[in-house]
Design a protein that fits this description.
Blueprint: E1 4-8, H1 13-24, E2 28-33, H2 36-50, E3 54-58, H3 64-77, E4 83-86, H4 101-122, E5 132-137, H5 150-170, E6 175-180, H6 189-197, H7 199-204, H8 209-221, E7 226-227, H9 231-242, H10 245-264
Parallel strand pairs: 1-2, 1-4, 2-3, 4-5, 5-6, 6-7
Helix pairs in contact: 1-8, 3-4, 4-5
Protein backbone atom coordinates (compact mmCIF):
# COMPACT_ATOMS: atom_id res chain seq x y z
CA UNK A 1 0.00 0.00 0.00
CA UNK A 2 1.38 3.42 -0.97
CA UNK A 3 1.62 5.98 1.79
CA UNK A 4 1.37 9.70 0.97
CA UNK A 5 2.25 12.81 2.97
CA UNK A 6 1.67 16.48 2.16
CA UNK A 7 4.36 19.10 2.85
CA UNK A 8 3.74 22.83 2.37
CA UNK A 9 6.64 25.27 2.08
CA UNK A 10 8.72 22.36 0.88
CA UNK A 11 11.70 24.18 -0.66
CA UNK A 12 12.86 26.02 2.45
CA UNK A 13 15.42 24.55 4.80
CA UNK A 14 12.88 22.98 7.15
CA UNK A 15 10.66 21.83 4.29
CA UNK A 16 13.51 20.11 2.47
CA UNK A 17 14.59 18.36 5.65
CA UNK A 18 11.06 17.07 6.25
CA UNK A 19 10.79 15.88 2.64
CA UNK A 20 14.05 13.94 2.88
CA UNK A 21 13.13 12.38 6.22
CA UNK A 22 9.64 11.35 5.09
CA UNK A 23 10.89 9.88 1.83
CA UNK A 24 13.50 7.95 3.80
CA UNK A 25 10.66 6.64 5.99
CA UNK A 26 8.96 5.28 2.89
CA UNK A 27 6.39 7.99 2.14
CA UNK A 28 5.49 9.35 -1.26
CA UNK A 29 5.07 13.11 -1.23
CA UNK A 30 2.77 15.83 -2.46
CA UNK A 31 4.75 19.05 -2.01
CA UNK A 32 3.94 22.71 -2.52
CA UNK A 33 5.82 25.98 -2.81
CA UNK A 34 5.68 29.19 -4.81
CA UNK A 35 8.41 28.70 -7.44
CA UNK A 36 8.16 25.98 -10.07
CA UNK A 37 11.91 25.72 -10.64
CA UNK A 38 12.74 25.17 -6.95
CA UNK A 39 9.96 22.70 -6.31
CA UNK A 40 10.68 20.72 -9.51
CA UNK A 41 14.36 20.49 -8.61
CA UNK A 42 13.51 19.27 -5.10
CA UNK A 43 11.06 16.67 -6.41
CA UNK A 44 13.59 15.33 -8.91
CA UNK A 45 16.26 15.02 -6.25
CA UNK A 46 13.98 13.23 -3.78
CA UNK A 47 12.78 10.78 -6.43
CA UNK A 48 16.32 9.90 -7.50
CA UNK A 49 17.72 9.57 -3.99
CA UNK A 50 14.86 7.70 -2.31
CA UNK A 51 13.02 6.10 -5.24
CA UNK A 52 9.68 7.51 -4.07
CA UNK A 53 6.98 9.32 -6.03
CA UNK A 54 6.85 13.09 -5.57
CA UNK A 55 4.00 15.19 -6.94
CA UNK A 56 4.31 18.97 -7.03
CA UNK A 57 1.80 21.78 -6.90
CA UNK A 58 2.95 25.37 -7.31
CA UNK A 59 0.98 27.27 -4.69
CA UNK A 60 1.23 30.71 -3.15
CA UNK A 61 -0.42 30.00 0.19
CA UNK A 62 -1.20 33.70 0.68
CA UNK A 63 -3.61 33.53 -2.25
CA UNK A 64 -7.06 32.14 -1.42
CA UNK A 65 -7.89 31.28 -5.03
CA UNK A 66 -4.68 29.30 -5.49
CA UNK A 67 -5.23 27.52 -2.17
CA UNK A 68 -8.65 26.44 -3.38
CA UNK A 69 -7.06 25.08 -6.57
CA UNK A 70 -4.69 23.09 -4.37
CA UNK A 71 -7.55 21.57 -2.35
CA UNK A 72 -9.35 20.67 -5.57
CA UNK A 73 -6.19 18.96 -6.78
CA UNK A 74 -6.06 16.91 -3.57
CA UNK A 75 -9.69 15.92 -4.07
CA UNK A 76 -9.00 14.92 -7.66
CA UNK A 77 -6.11 12.63 -6.67
CA UNK A 78 -8.75 10.37 -5.13
CA UNK A 79 -6.37 8.98 -2.53
CA UNK A 80 -6.02 8.89 1.24
CA UNK A 81 -3.15 10.71 2.92
CA UNK A 82 -1.18 9.80 6.02
CA UNK A 83 -0.19 13.25 7.18
CA UNK A 84 0.26 16.98 6.68
CA UNK A 85 3.37 19.01 7.49
CA UNK A 86 2.53 22.72 7.57
CA UNK A 87 5.90 24.40 7.06
CA UNK A 88 4.93 27.39 4.90
CA UNK A 89 5.37 30.60 6.86
CA UNK A 90 6.94 34.02 6.73
CA UNK A 91 9.07 36.12 9.08
CA UNK A 92 9.09 39.89 9.18
CA UNK A 93 10.62 42.57 11.33
CA UNK A 94 10.38 46.33 11.64
CA UNK A 95 8.25 48.93 13.34
CA UNK A 96 4.57 48.01 13.12
CA UNK A 97 3.29 51.53 12.47
CA UNK A 98 5.56 52.02 9.45
CA UNK A 99 5.14 48.56 7.95
CA UNK A 100 3.20 48.22 4.71
CA UNK A 101 -0.19 46.67 5.50
CA UNK A 102 0.12 44.28 2.56
CA UNK A 103 3.08 42.74 4.36
CA UNK A 104 1.07 42.44 7.58
CA UNK A 105 -1.80 40.82 5.70
CA UNK A 106 0.62 38.41 4.02
CA UNK A 107 1.83 37.24 7.43
CA UNK A 108 -1.74 36.63 8.57
CA UNK A 109 -2.68 34.85 5.36
CA UNK A 110 0.34 32.55 5.37
CA UNK A 111 1.04 31.89 9.05
CA UNK A 112 -2.54 31.81 10.30
CA UNK A 113 -5.23 31.45 7.66
CA UNK A 114 -3.52 29.00 5.32
CA UNK A 115 -2.39 26.82 8.24
CA UNK A 116 -5.97 26.67 9.53
CA UNK A 117 -7.46 26.11 6.11
CA UNK A 118 -4.97 23.38 5.19
CA UNK A 119 -5.92 21.37 8.24
CA UNK A 120 -9.66 21.81 7.70
CA UNK A 121 -9.61 21.05 3.98
CA UNK A 122 -7.18 18.12 4.06
CA UNK A 123 -8.53 16.20 7.08
CA UNK A 124 -11.39 14.65 5.06
CA UNK A 125 -8.81 12.87 2.89
CA UNK A 126 -6.94 11.15 5.71
CA UNK A 127 -6.59 7.39 5.72
CA UNK A 128 -9.20 6.11 8.20
CA UNK A 129 -7.23 2.95 8.95
CA UNK A 130 -3.95 4.52 10.10
CA UNK A 131 -2.92 7.40 12.38
CA UNK A 132 -2.90 10.75 10.58
CA UNK A 133 0.11 12.92 11.47
CA UNK A 134 -0.11 16.72 11.52
CA UNK A 135 2.93 18.83 12.36
CA UNK A 136 2.51 22.60 12.38
CA UNK A 137 5.69 24.66 12.36
CA UNK A 138 5.57 27.54 14.83
CA UNK A 139 8.53 29.15 16.62
CA UNK A 140 10.06 29.75 20.03
CA UNK A 141 8.94 33.35 19.38
CA UNK A 142 5.37 32.17 20.00
CA UNK A 143 5.89 32.29 23.76
CA UNK A 144 6.92 35.92 24.09
CA UNK A 145 5.65 39.28 22.82
CA UNK A 146 8.24 40.66 20.41
CA UNK A 147 8.47 44.35 19.55
CA UNK A 148 9.49 44.87 15.90
CA UNK A 149 8.37 41.28 15.20
CA UNK A 150 4.92 41.64 16.77
CA UNK A 151 2.84 40.13 13.96
CA UNK A 152 5.29 37.26 13.52
CA UNK A 153 5.29 36.23 17.20
CA UNK A 154 1.52 36.70 17.48
CA UNK A 155 0.85 34.58 14.39
CA UNK A 156 3.15 31.86 15.68
CA UNK A 157 1.32 31.91 19.02
CA UNK A 158 -1.90 31.43 17.07
CA UNK A 159 -0.46 28.25 15.56
CA UNK A 160 0.36 26.88 19.02
CA UNK A 161 -3.12 27.54 20.38
CA UNK A 162 -4.79 26.20 17.24
CA UNK A 163 -2.76 22.99 17.40
CA UNK A 164 -3.39 22.31 21.07
CA UNK A 165 -7.12 22.93 20.72
CA UNK A 166 -7.72 20.80 17.63
CA UNK A 167 -5.41 18.11 19.00
CA UNK A 168 -7.78 17.45 21.92
CA UNK A 169 -10.77 17.26 19.58
CA UNK A 170 -9.18 14.76 17.21
CA UNK A 171 -6.84 12.57 19.23
CA UNK A 172 -9.56 9.94 19.77
CA UNK A 173 -10.01 9.77 16.00
CA UNK A 174 -6.46 8.64 15.35
CA UNK A 175 -4.97 12.07 14.60
CA UNK A 176 -1.49 12.75 15.96
CA UNK A 177 -1.05 16.52 16.14
CA UNK A 178 2.05 18.41 17.24
CA UNK A 179 3.48 21.89 17.00
CA UNK A 180 7.18 22.47 16.41
CA UNK A 181 8.61 25.53 18.18
CA UNK A 182 12.29 25.75 17.20
CA UNK A 183 14.86 28.41 17.98
CA UNK A 184 17.10 29.68 15.23
CA UNK A 185 18.00 27.46 12.29
CA UNK A 186 20.56 28.30 9.58
CA UNK A 187 18.12 27.84 6.69
CA UNK A 188 19.21 30.72 4.43
CA UNK A 189 21.76 33.59 4.31
CA UNK A 190 19.35 36.14 5.83
CA UNK A 191 18.50 33.85 8.75
CA UNK A 192 22.18 33.14 9.34
CA UNK A 193 22.86 36.88 9.40
CA UNK A 194 20.10 37.42 11.96
CA UNK A 195 21.48 34.63 14.14
CA UNK A 196 24.97 36.12 14.00
CA UNK A 197 23.60 39.52 15.01
CA UNK A 198 22.37 37.95 18.26
CA UNK A 199 25.91 36.89 19.20
CA UNK A 200 26.41 34.18 21.83
CA UNK A 201 22.68 33.93 22.58
CA UNK A 202 21.93 33.27 18.93
CA UNK A 203 24.57 30.56 18.70
CA UNK A 204 23.46 28.54 21.72
CA UNK A 205 19.81 28.51 20.62
CA UNK A 206 20.55 27.51 17.02
CA UNK A 207 20.31 23.89 15.85
CA UNK A 208 20.97 22.12 12.56
CA UNK A 209 17.78 21.80 10.52
CA UNK A 210 18.11 18.05 9.91
CA UNK A 211 18.55 17.43 13.62
CA UNK A 212 15.48 19.53 14.43
CA UNK A 213 13.31 17.66 11.93
CA UNK A 214 14.55 14.24 13.09
CA UNK A 215 13.76 15.07 16.72
CA UNK A 216 10.39 16.49 15.73
CA UNK A 217 9.24 13.46 13.76
CA UNK A 218 10.22 11.06 16.54
CA UNK A 219 8.46 13.08 19.24
CA UNK A 220 5.38 13.72 17.09
CA UNK A 221 4.97 10.00 16.41
CA UNK A 222 5.16 9.36 20.14
CA UNK A 223 2.35 11.86 20.78
CA UNK A 224 4.27 14.91 22.03
CA UNK A 225 2.16 18.07 21.80
CA UNK A 226 4.71 20.91 21.91
CA UNK A 227 8.16 20.12 20.54
CA UNK A 228 11.07 22.42 21.44
CA UNK A 229 14.37 20.91 20.26
CA UNK A 230 17.56 21.84 22.10
CA UNK A 231 18.45 22.16 25.78
CA UNK A 232 18.91 25.95 25.77
CA UNK A 233 15.67 26.46 23.87
CA UNK A 234 13.76 24.42 26.45
CA UNK A 235 15.47 26.41 29.22
CA UNK A 236 14.51 29.68 27.57
CA UNK A 237 10.91 28.48 27.26
CA UNK A 238 10.69 27.71 30.98
CA UNK A 239 12.37 31.00 31.95
CA UNK A 240 9.84 33.00 29.96
CA UNK A 241 7.11 31.37 32.04
CA UNK A 242 8.62 32.96 35.17
CA UNK A 243 8.92 36.52 33.84
CA UNK A 244 5.91 38.82 33.25
CA UNK A 245 5.22 39.34 29.56
CA UNK A 246 5.39 43.13 29.94
CA UNK A 247 8.94 42.80 31.26
CA UNK A 248 9.92 40.45 28.42
CA UNK A 249 8.48 42.87 25.86
CA UNK A 250 10.48 45.75 27.36
CA UNK A 251 13.70 43.72 27.36
CA UNK A 252 13.21 42.62 23.77
CA UNK A 253 12.37 46.15 22.63
CA UNK A 254 15.75 47.33 23.85
CA UNK A 255 17.53 44.38 22.30
CA UNK A 256 15.86 44.54 18.87
CA UNK A 257 16.01 48.32 18.57
CA UNK A 258 19.80 48.05 18.87
CA UNK A 259 19.97 45.20 16.36
CA UNK A 260 17.84 47.05 13.82
CA UNK A 261 19.76 50.27 14.35
CA UNK A 262 23.07 48.52 13.68
CA UNK A 263 21.60 46.87 10.58
CA UNK A 264 19.96 49.86 8.90
CA UNK A 265 20.20 52.90 11.15
CA UNK A 266 16.41 53.37 10.97
CA UNK A 267 15.76 53.30 14.70
CA UNK A 268 17.37 55.10 17.56
CA UNK A 269 19.38 52.72 19.78
CA UNK A 270 17.86 54.51 22.77
CA UNK A 271 14.26 53.78 21.76
Amino acid sequence: MERWMIVTGATGGVGKAFCSLLADKGFNLLITDREISSISELASGIEKQYDKSVETFVCDMTNETVRNDFYQYIKNTDRHYHGLINVAGIDSEGQFSTKDYEKINMIMQLNMISTTENIHKILPYRDPDTPFLIINVSSLAAFQPMPYKAMYSASKRFIVQLTLGIREELKREGVLMSVLCPGGMPTNPLTIQRIEKQGFFGKITTLDTTKVVTITYKKAMSGKAIIIPGFFNKLLFFLTKLIPETVIARMLQKKWSKVLYMRCGSLSPKD
